[in-house]
Specification:
disordered C terminus; about 350 residues; about 35% helix; TIM Barrel; alpha/beta; DNA polymerase, domain 1; two-stranded antiparallel ribbon
Protein backbone atom coordinates (compact mmCIF):
# COMPACT_ATOMS: atom_id res chain seq x y z
CA UNK A 1 0.00 0.00 0.00
CA UNK A 2 1.32 3.44 -0.95
CA UNK A 3 1.44 6.02 1.82
CA UNK A 4 0.61 9.48 0.52
CA UNK A 5 2.08 12.53 2.20
CA UNK A 6 1.45 16.25 2.06
CA UNK A 7 5.11 17.07 1.42
CA UNK A 8 5.84 18.45 -2.06
CA UNK A 9 8.24 16.85 -4.53
CA UNK A 10 11.42 18.93 -4.33
CA UNK A 11 12.05 18.56 -8.06
CA UNK A 12 8.86 20.46 -8.72
CA UNK A 13 10.72 23.60 -7.61
CA UNK A 14 13.05 25.71 -9.73
CA UNK A 15 16.45 26.67 -8.36
CA UNK A 16 15.24 30.22 -7.73
CA UNK A 17 12.23 28.92 -5.83
CA UNK A 18 14.51 26.74 -3.70
CA UNK A 19 16.77 29.71 -2.99
CA UNK A 20 13.78 31.75 -1.88
CA UNK A 21 12.67 28.90 0.36
CA UNK A 22 16.09 28.57 2.01
CA UNK A 23 16.41 32.32 2.59
CA UNK A 24 12.90 32.43 4.07
CA UNK A 25 13.89 29.66 6.48
CA UNK A 26 17.10 31.46 7.50
CA UNK A 27 19.47 29.27 5.47
CA UNK A 28 22.16 30.36 3.00
CA UNK A 29 20.92 30.72 -0.59
CA UNK A 30 23.88 28.72 -1.97
CA UNK A 31 22.49 25.62 -0.28
CA UNK A 32 19.87 25.58 -3.04
CA UNK A 33 22.65 25.11 -5.62
CA UNK A 34 23.97 22.10 -3.72
CA UNK A 35 20.55 20.51 -3.29
CA UNK A 36 19.61 21.21 -6.91
CA UNK A 37 22.75 19.43 -8.10
CA UNK A 38 22.01 16.44 -5.89
CA UNK A 39 18.41 15.95 -7.03
CA UNK A 40 19.10 16.48 -10.73
CA UNK A 41 22.68 15.93 -11.84
CA UNK A 42 23.50 13.33 -9.16
CA UNK A 43 20.00 11.80 -9.14
CA UNK A 44 19.92 11.44 -5.35
CA UNK A 45 17.12 9.19 -4.13
CA UNK A 46 17.20 10.53 -0.56
CA UNK A 47 18.31 13.61 1.32
CA UNK A 48 20.70 11.50 3.41
CA UNK A 49 22.85 11.00 0.30
CA UNK A 50 23.67 14.73 0.25
CA UNK A 51 26.98 14.43 2.04
CA UNK A 52 28.20 18.01 1.50
CA UNK A 53 25.39 19.52 3.60
CA UNK A 54 24.93 19.15 7.31
CA UNK A 55 22.93 16.38 8.94
CA UNK A 56 20.66 19.02 10.46
CA UNK A 57 19.87 20.50 7.05
CA UNK A 58 19.24 17.05 5.60
CA UNK A 59 16.72 16.39 8.38
CA UNK A 60 15.21 19.82 7.74
CA UNK A 61 14.76 18.93 4.06
CA UNK A 62 13.14 15.62 4.94
CA UNK A 63 10.65 17.48 7.10
CA UNK A 64 9.60 19.77 4.23
CA UNK A 65 10.07 17.80 1.00
CA UNK A 66 10.22 14.38 -0.55
CA UNK A 67 12.00 13.10 -3.65
CA UNK A 68 9.79 11.25 -6.09
CA UNK A 69 11.90 8.57 -7.75
CA UNK A 70 10.86 5.99 -10.28
CA UNK A 71 11.71 2.34 -9.70
CA UNK A 72 12.29 -0.49 -12.15
CA UNK A 73 9.35 -2.83 -11.57
CA UNK A 74 10.39 -5.38 -14.22
CA UNK A 75 12.52 -5.77 -17.32
CA UNK A 76 12.67 -8.06 -20.33
CA UNK A 77 15.51 -8.63 -22.77
CA UNK A 78 14.85 -9.45 -26.39
CA UNK A 79 16.89 -11.91 -28.40
CA UNK A 80 18.14 -8.88 -30.41
CA UNK A 81 19.45 -7.18 -27.24
CA UNK A 82 16.63 -4.69 -26.83
CA UNK A 83 15.58 -4.26 -23.20
CA UNK A 84 12.08 -3.18 -22.16
CA UNK A 85 11.61 -1.74 -18.68
CA UNK A 86 8.42 -1.19 -16.68
CA UNK A 87 8.90 1.81 -14.39
CA UNK A 88 6.83 2.18 -11.24
CA UNK A 89 6.05 5.80 -10.38
CA UNK A 90 5.69 7.22 -6.87
CA UNK A 91 1.91 6.72 -6.97
CA UNK A 92 2.17 3.10 -8.11
CA UNK A 93 1.31 3.70 -11.76
CA UNK A 94 3.44 2.14 -14.49
CA UNK A 95 5.01 3.33 -17.72
CA UNK A 96 7.40 1.59 -20.08
CA UNK A 97 10.71 2.58 -21.60
CA UNK A 98 13.05 0.76 -23.97
CA UNK A 99 16.81 0.54 -24.46
CA UNK A 100 17.61 -0.07 -28.14
CA UNK A 101 21.26 -1.03 -28.79
CA UNK A 102 22.70 -0.83 -32.29
CA UNK A 103 26.46 -1.18 -32.32
CA UNK A 104 27.89 1.78 -30.45
CA UNK A 105 24.56 3.62 -30.69
CA UNK A 106 22.38 3.36 -27.58
CA UNK A 107 18.88 4.82 -27.82
CA UNK A 108 16.39 5.31 -25.00
CA UNK A 109 12.72 5.31 -26.00
CA UNK A 110 10.84 7.06 -23.20
CA UNK A 111 7.23 7.78 -22.27
CA UNK A 112 5.55 11.12 -21.59
CA UNK A 113 2.12 10.03 -20.27
CA UNK A 114 0.58 7.19 -18.29
CA UNK A 115 -1.65 5.78 -21.01
CA UNK A 116 -2.79 7.92 -23.94
CA UNK A 117 -5.85 9.96 -24.86
CA UNK A 118 -5.51 9.29 -28.59
CA UNK A 119 -6.93 6.31 -30.48
CA UNK A 120 -4.44 5.48 -33.23
CA UNK A 121 -5.68 2.15 -34.57
CA UNK A 122 -2.24 0.55 -34.92
CA UNK A 123 -0.95 1.39 -31.44
CA UNK A 124 -1.35 -0.77 -28.33
CA UNK A 125 -0.83 2.21 -26.00
CA UNK A 126 -3.97 3.82 -27.46
CA UNK A 127 -6.01 1.04 -25.88
CA UNK A 128 -4.96 2.09 -22.40
CA UNK A 129 -6.94 4.57 -20.37
CA UNK A 130 -5.30 7.98 -20.13
CA UNK A 131 -4.40 8.37 -16.45
CA UNK A 132 -2.13 11.37 -16.18
CA UNK A 133 0.80 13.31 -17.57
CA UNK A 134 4.29 12.48 -16.41
CA UNK A 135 6.16 15.18 -14.52
CA UNK A 136 9.53 16.47 -15.81
CA UNK A 137 11.45 14.48 -13.21
CA UNK A 138 9.60 11.24 -14.06
CA UNK A 139 10.56 11.68 -17.71
CA UNK A 140 14.13 12.61 -16.76
CA UNK A 141 14.45 9.61 -14.45
CA UNK A 142 13.62 7.22 -17.29
CA UNK A 143 16.66 8.54 -19.16
CA UNK A 144 18.87 8.22 -16.08
CA UNK A 145 17.72 4.63 -15.47
CA UNK A 146 18.06 3.54 -19.11
CA UNK A 147 21.49 5.18 -19.33
CA UNK A 148 22.62 3.15 -16.31
CA UNK A 149 21.16 0.04 -17.94
CA UNK A 150 23.11 0.75 -21.14
CA UNK A 151 26.37 1.18 -19.24
CA UNK A 152 25.83 -1.84 -16.99
CA UNK A 153 24.74 -4.12 -19.86
CA UNK A 154 26.79 -2.92 -22.83
CA UNK A 155 29.47 -0.66 -21.37
CA UNK A 156 28.23 2.22 -23.54
CA UNK A 157 26.27 5.28 -22.34
CA UNK A 158 23.18 6.56 -24.10
CA UNK A 159 23.79 8.34 -27.37
CA UNK A 160 20.19 9.17 -28.33
CA UNK A 161 16.77 9.75 -26.78
CA UNK A 162 13.42 9.43 -28.54
CA UNK A 163 10.11 10.58 -27.07
CA UNK A 164 8.28 7.74 -28.80
CA UNK A 165 7.04 5.73 -25.83
CA UNK A 166 3.63 5.85 -24.20
CA UNK A 167 1.60 9.03 -24.66
CA UNK A 168 1.48 12.07 -26.94
CA UNK A 169 4.32 14.42 -25.92
CA UNK A 170 2.67 17.57 -27.26
CA UNK A 171 -0.35 17.00 -25.00
CA UNK A 172 2.07 17.27 -22.06
CA UNK A 173 3.96 20.18 -23.57
CA UNK A 174 5.22 22.09 -20.53
CA UNK A 175 6.48 19.02 -18.66
CA UNK A 176 8.10 17.52 -21.76
CA UNK A 177 9.90 20.77 -22.57
CA UNK A 178 11.10 21.09 -18.98
CA UNK A 179 12.40 17.51 -19.07
CA UNK A 180 14.33 18.24 -22.28
CA UNK A 181 15.70 21.41 -20.72
CA UNK A 182 17.05 19.41 -17.78
CA UNK A 183 18.34 16.54 -19.94
CA UNK A 184 20.32 19.01 -22.06
CA UNK A 185 21.36 21.39 -19.26
CA UNK A 186 24.89 21.27 -17.79
CA UNK A 187 23.05 21.18 -14.45
CA UNK A 188 21.31 18.00 -15.60
CA UNK A 189 22.62 15.36 -18.01
CA UNK A 190 24.30 17.72 -20.48
CA UNK A 191 23.16 15.85 -23.60
CA UNK A 192 23.04 17.62 -26.95
CA UNK A 193 19.48 18.50 -28.06
CA UNK A 194 20.41 17.21 -31.51
CA UNK A 195 20.48 13.72 -30.01
CA UNK A 196 16.86 14.03 -28.92
CA UNK A 197 13.84 13.37 -31.16
CA UNK A 198 10.26 14.13 -30.22
CA UNK A 199 7.60 12.16 -32.09
CA UNK A 200 4.07 13.52 -32.38
CA UNK A 201 0.85 12.30 -33.95
CA UNK A 202 0.42 15.81 -35.30
CA UNK A 203 -1.02 18.69 -33.24
CA UNK A 204 -0.65 21.73 -35.46
CA UNK A 205 -1.02 24.36 -32.73
CA UNK A 206 1.75 22.83 -30.63
CA UNK A 207 4.06 22.30 -33.62
CA UNK A 208 3.76 26.05 -34.18
CA UNK A 209 4.52 26.66 -30.52
CA UNK A 210 7.70 24.61 -30.83
CA UNK A 211 8.64 26.90 -33.69
CA UNK A 212 7.97 29.97 -31.55
CA UNK A 213 10.06 28.43 -28.79
CA UNK A 214 12.80 27.74 -31.35
CA UNK A 215 13.48 24.27 -30.02
CA UNK A 216 16.83 22.70 -30.87
CA UNK A 217 15.84 19.02 -30.83
CA UNK A 218 14.57 16.93 -33.74
CA UNK A 219 10.92 16.53 -34.69
CA UNK A 220 9.28 13.42 -36.12
CA UNK A 221 5.68 13.37 -37.37
CA UNK A 222 3.79 10.09 -37.08
CA UNK A 223 2.25 10.50 -40.54
CA UNK A 224 1.62 6.99 -41.98
CA UNK A 225 -0.54 8.15 -44.87
CA UNK A 226 -0.74 11.45 -46.77
CA UNK A 227 -4.44 11.27 -47.56
CA UNK A 228 -6.96 12.91 -45.21
CA UNK A 229 -9.68 10.30 -45.57
CA UNK A 230 -7.33 7.39 -44.92
CA UNK A 231 -5.41 9.15 -42.18
CA UNK A 232 -8.60 9.98 -40.30
CA UNK A 233 -9.57 6.31 -40.42
CA UNK A 234 -6.19 5.43 -38.97
CA UNK A 235 -5.81 8.34 -36.52
CA UNK A 236 -8.85 10.36 -35.50
CA UNK A 237 -6.57 13.26 -34.45
CA UNK A 238 -6.49 14.01 -38.19
CA UNK A 239 -10.10 15.26 -38.01
CA UNK A 240 -9.05 18.29 -35.97
CA UNK A 241 -5.54 18.48 -37.44
CA UNK A 242 -5.90 17.68 -41.16
CA UNK A 243 -2.91 17.43 -43.45
CA UNK A 244 -3.33 20.98 -44.77
CA UNK A 245 -3.06 22.43 -41.25
CA UNK A 246 -0.16 20.15 -40.43
CA UNK A 247 1.67 21.24 -43.58
CA UNK A 248 1.26 24.92 -42.64
CA UNK A 249 2.44 24.24 -39.08
CA UNK A 250 5.46 22.29 -40.32
CA UNK A 251 6.42 25.09 -42.71
CA UNK A 252 6.23 27.52 -39.79
CA UNK A 253 8.31 25.19 -37.62
CA UNK A 254 10.97 24.85 -40.32
CA UNK A 255 11.09 28.62 -40.92
CA UNK A 256 11.65 29.22 -37.20
CA UNK A 257 14.11 26.39 -36.47
CA UNK A 258 15.71 25.33 -39.77
CA UNK A 259 15.33 21.71 -38.61
CA UNK A 260 14.60 18.99 -41.16
CA UNK A 261 11.53 17.00 -40.10
CA UNK A 262 11.23 13.21 -40.23
CA UNK A 263 7.98 11.61 -41.39
CA UNK A 264 7.30 8.23 -39.85
CA UNK A 265 5.43 5.90 -42.17
CA UNK A 266 4.31 2.47 -40.99
CA UNK A 267 3.49 0.55 -44.15
CA UNK A 268 0.36 -1.62 -43.84
CA UNK A 269 -0.74 -4.33 -46.24
CA UNK A 270 -3.60 -3.27 -48.52
CA UNK A 271 -4.01 0.09 -46.78
CA UNK A 272 -1.15 2.48 -47.54
CA UNK A 273 1.27 0.37 -49.56
CA UNK A 274 0.33 1.26 -53.15
CA UNK A 275 2.26 3.52 -55.51
CA UNK A 276 -0.61 6.02 -55.28
CA UNK A 277 0.05 6.22 -51.53
CA UNK A 278 3.73 6.79 -52.27
CA UNK A 279 2.79 9.50 -54.78
CA UNK A 280 0.66 11.30 -52.16
CA UNK A 281 3.48 11.03 -49.63
CA UNK A 282 5.96 12.45 -52.14
CA UNK A 283 3.64 15.43 -52.68
CA UNK A 284 3.46 16.04 -48.92
CA UNK A 285 7.24 15.88 -48.74
CA UNK A 286 7.49 18.92 -51.02
CA UNK A 287 6.38 21.30 -48.27
CA UNK A 288 9.69 21.38 -46.35
CA UNK A 289 13.06 19.61 -46.31
CA UNK A 290 12.40 16.21 -44.77
CA UNK A 291 13.25 12.55 -44.72
CA UNK A 292 10.99 9.50 -44.47
CA UNK A 293 11.37 6.59 -42.08
CA UNK A 294 9.61 3.51 -43.41
CA UNK A 295 8.72 1.48 -40.33
CA UNK A 296 8.04 -2.22 -40.24
CA UNK A 297 4.64 -2.81 -38.65
CA UNK A 298 4.59 -4.56 -35.30
CA UNK A 299 1.34 -6.49 -34.81
CA UNK A 300 -0.75 -5.98 -31.69
CA UNK A 301 -3.22 -8.45 -30.25
CA UNK A 302 -6.13 -8.37 -32.69
CA UNK A 303 -4.03 -8.51 -35.88
CA UNK A 304 -6.32 -6.08 -37.72
CA UNK A 305 -3.36 -4.63 -39.66
CA UNK A 306 -0.60 -6.65 -41.27
CA UNK A 307 2.88 -5.78 -42.49
CA UNK A 308 3.03 -4.98 -46.20
CA UNK A 309 4.80 -7.45 -48.46
CA UNK A 310 8.49 -7.00 -49.17
CA UNK A 311 7.72 -6.57 -52.87
CA UNK A 312 5.33 -3.67 -52.28
CA UNK A 313 7.55 -2.13 -49.63
CA UNK A 314 10.54 -2.18 -51.96
CA UNK A 315 8.49 -0.67 -54.80
CA UNK A 316 7.20 2.02 -52.44
CA UNK A 317 10.73 2.93 -51.37
CA UNK A 318 12.04 2.96 -54.96
CA UNK A 319 9.28 5.38 -55.97
CA UNK A 320 10.11 7.79 -53.14
CA UNK A 321 13.82 7.64 -53.90
CA UNK A 322 13.09 8.32 -57.58
CA UNK A 323 11.61 11.62 -56.41
CA UNK A 324 14.79 12.54 -54.55
CA UNK A 325 13.39 11.81 -51.09
CA UNK A 326 15.73 10.52 -48.37
CA UNK A 327 14.32 7.21 -47.15
CA UNK A 328 15.44 5.11 -44.19
CA UNK A 329 14.00 1.72 -43.31
CA UNK A 330 13.56 1.03 -39.61
CA UNK A 331 13.48 -2.65 -38.78
CA UNK A 332 11.60 -3.82 -35.72
CA UNK A 333 13.58 -4.23 -32.52
CA UNK A 334 12.28 -6.03 -29.47
CA UNK A 335 9.16 -7.39 -31.17
CA UNK A 336 9.36 -10.67 -29.25
CA UNK A 337 8.94 -8.82 -25.92
CA UNK A 338 6.34 -6.29 -27.14
CA UNK A 339 8.95 -3.53 -27.03
CA UNK A 340 8.78 -2.48 -30.68
CA UNK A 341 7.18 0.65 -32.10
CA UNK A 342 3.46 0.74 -31.26
CA UNK A 343 3.58 -2.22 -28.87
CA UNK A 344 4.07 -0.49 -25.52
CA UNK A 345 1.04 -1.29 -23.39
CA UNK A 346 1.59 -2.37 -19.81
CA UNK A 347 0.30 -5.91 -19.54
CA UNK A 348 -0.15 -5.31 -15.82
CA UNK A 349 -3.58 -3.90 -14.97
CA UNK A 350 -3.28 -0.48 -13.39
CA UNK A 351 -5.66 1.14 -10.94
CA UNK A 352 -6.84 4.66 -11.72
Amino acid sequence: MIVRTEKPNIRGFSKDQLKAFFVEKGEKAFRADQVYQWVWQKSAASFQEMTNISKELRTFLEQHFEIHKIKIASSQRSKDGTIKVAFELHDGKLVEGVLIPAGDRMTACISSQVGCSLDCKFCATARLKMMRNLTPDEIYDQVVAINKLAIDTYGIPLTNIVYMGMGEPLLNYKNVMTSIQMITSPEGLGMSPRRITLSTSGIAKMIRKMGDDQVKFNLALSLHVANNEKRTRLMSINQSNPLEELADALKYFYEKTGTRVTYEYIIFRDFNDEIQDARELAEFCKHIPCKVNIIEYNPIDDGFFQQASKQKTDAFIRFLESKGIIVNVRRSRGKDIDAACGQLANKVVQQA
